[in-house]
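Lecture notes, unit on protein representations.

Consider one protein chain, 155 amino acids long.
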Amino acid sequence: MLQFRTRRAGESGLTLIELIVTVFILSILASAALPVMRFQVKREKEKVLRHDLWEMRAAIDAYKDAADRGFIRTKVDSFNYPPSLHILVDGVDVKGKRVRFLRRIPVDPMTGKATWGKRSVQDSPDSTSWGGQNVFDVYSLSDGTALNGTKYSTW
């Protein structure tokens, strides 16, 4: 025979004090996790920025290598670097075939735009204005500071 225990009026559910303590503990844990999540989001954006810069710089180097080998005709004052980032996406004719060096110009994760700072061979290494002759290097236009204390524009 099964016996069921009957509840008395004072034994049902949680008390108000128990509920308040539980909510308080959960709010402390959530507030401790929030800064960690912010750093994680920033760290992920920095990872994407590093990858995008690496990808564009590799495409610029591949274009220059093809031009140095004589596969691409360039202007004399370009030093065999591409005239713009868009030509890396649009492609150039190499021996009757269209060769593209980038699928797309990536979006800068720090600014949210597909615009990048550019430097030509003729510009100084820390220049913030592009001379327009060729694209030797790219950098982020963000004025933010990375987790390691450096500016994104110096990457």
